[in-house]
Design a protein that fits this description.
Radius of gyration: 22 Å
Number of strands: 15
Largest sheet: 9 strands, mixed
Structural class: alpha/beta
Mean pLDDT: 94
CATH superfamily: Alkaline Phosphatase, subunit A
Number of domains: 1
Length: 487
């Protein structure tokens, strides 16, 4: 019996979908990803996350369910033991699941609880000491202090050479690949911390980025959600110069270049071990990052801009699956990842997935996959369980303490919002404030001119509202496949 293909899920953190050389960004330095797409993989240039925040997005793409289906909208509601997800299913199918990296996915009370979801939860020596990763913050009077900026680092904690902790995680994965043998298929899940801020890199990667090739930051738009102005004020963003924002963007691109470098090391290890052809390889991110767009760093827990939702999605199937390498412009969702993996591996997961398999698209079919993609974010009014008390309790003046303080009044009033996005238009409807958003993406790809409420666009707004209604009707719940006895 032929062994099932190996699976590698290489998941970057906060990696914007536009920082890819093969997708047309001249400022991006991503030679390994570009080479993979040019040779053996498909890159989806219109892939979108279902939530702009770590935990809800991961819970969504791992289950294949939209966030509202099982209430995973907050940072502190993780998957429970009874909820299905990709890693658990692969393990049930005989895979040895190695997990190296952050959680933000499953609820664990002790390290032993990870054994319910994987065979090995890897922690490197560097993760345990973290001495090479800690950095001194900027002086508080530096205008970038509250933007999570740390600059170009040569030394980390205890004077050691700065080395991002993700390098140790990838080293662990390389060791697993080098030692792999036998008939049991392998799943490597690498949820990295790069390129999540702090915005910090080393000279090696910083010097790879030509600042003159970077796309400019988007300006503040007309009719934006009020929470963005409150965040800018709290961050002191008005004191940050255009040149400083450009440097932040350069560092972010350098962090992306480091991710590409780490990814290339994994691909090379697969080739060296003779595992490349028999491996299904998926590269994607949980969400994006402002990186200076609209005068903001990081992300929000209340808004749905493309820079936060548009993510890379690159899939290399095993050699026995038909593939036409290159770029696809069809709308895709991260929900499609688990559905595609189940299909390509011939696995019946035992529950209903709401994503769509990309098998036909991988082979070259450019038919529409989704007429629209959807995302959700935010809190219900007075929803205390939504608040991330860890952020509120962080040190005074720290990034997340500042961010949570500015956003808290909006969260108390209700920030829940949903998005319907086609290739041409985007609509965001808010549940409490009435501050909706409508954009013509053909004329306004930066979402700078909010057309919601404009009588000239009333028909389009009504059409997008109907699209959202149909979305909730189609996806409101999922029935278990096993039927209960009524006796």
């Amino acid at each position: 019996m032929q062994r099932k293909p190996n699976v590698i899920l290489f998941v970057a953190e906060s990696y914007r979908g536009d920082v890819l050389g093969h997708a047309g960004n001249p400022g991006a330095v991503t030679p390994n990803l570009d080479a993979l797409v040019g040779r053996d993989a498909v890159s989806y240039s219109n892939a979108f996350s279902q939530n702009p925040v770590c935990t809800p997005s991961r819970c969504s793409f791992m289950t294949g369910w939209y966030p509202h289906v099982h209430g995973h909208r907050s940072m502190r509601n993780l998957l429970k033991d009874h909820e299905p997800h990709l890693l658990k299913v692969l393990r049930q199918e005989g895979y040895r699941v190695w997990w190296g990296g952050k959680n933000d996915l499953v609820a664990v009370e002790s390290p032993e609880d990870y054994q319910k979801h994987c065979d090995i939860k890897y922690r490197s020596d560097q993760q345990q000491t973290d001495e090479g990763y800690r950095l001194q913050p900027l002086p508080e009077d530096d205008p970038r202090y509250r933007l999570y900026y740390r600059g170009v680092a040569e030394r980390g904690g205890a004077g050691q050479p700065y080395r991002h902790k993700d390098e140790a995680l990838v080293d662990g994965a390389l060791d697993v690949i080098a030692r792999h043998q036998g008939t049991q298929p392998l799943c490597i899940y690498l949820p990295l911390s790069l390129v999540h801020p702090a915005y910090v890199t080393t000279r090696k990667y910083y010097d790879l980025i030509n600042p003159d090739l970077l796309p400019p930051c988007l300006p503040v738009g007309r009719g934006e959600p009020p929470v963005l102005a409150a965040l800018r004020q709290a961050y002191g963003a008005s004191a940050v110069t255009d040149e400083q924002w450009r440097d932040i963007r350069r560092i972010y691109y350098a962090m992306c270049a480091q991710v590409d470098d780490l990814f290339g090391r994994v691909v090379e290890a697969l080739r060296r071990q003779g595992m490349y052809d028999e491996t299904l390889l998926a590269f994607f991110s949980d969400h994006g990052d402002f990186t200076g767009d609209y005068g903001l760093p990081e992300k929000t827990h209340a808004t749905l801009q493309d820079c936060l939702l548009h993510v890379p999605l690159i899939i290399k199937p095993p050699a026995d699956v038909a593939v036409k390498p290159g770029l696809r412009r069809q709308l895709t969702e991260l929900l499609d990842v688990s559905a595609t993996i189940y299909d390509l591996l011939g696995i019946e997961p035992g529950y209903t997935c709401q994503g769509s398999s990309l098998r036909a698209s991988l082979a070259g079919d450019e038919s529409e996959l989704h007429h629209a993609v959807f995302a959700e974010v935010g809190s219900r009014r007075g929803e205390t369980s939504f608040k991330n008390m860890e952020a509120k309790a962080s040190p005074p003046g720290s990034f997340y303490q500042v961010q949570s303080g500015a956003a808290l009044p909006f969260a108390d009033a209700g920030t829940y919002a949903v998005m319907c996005r086609t290739l041409a238009h985007k609509y965001v409807r808010r549940g409490y404030t009435g501050h909706h958003e409508l954009y013509d993406l053909r004329q306004d790809p930066g979402e700078l001119c909010n057309l919601a409420g404009d009588p000239a666009h009333a028909a389009l707004e009504s059409e997008m509202q109907s699209c959202l209604l149909e979305y909730f009707m189609r996806t409101g719940d999922v029935l278990p496949l096993k039927q209960d006895r009524r006796g």
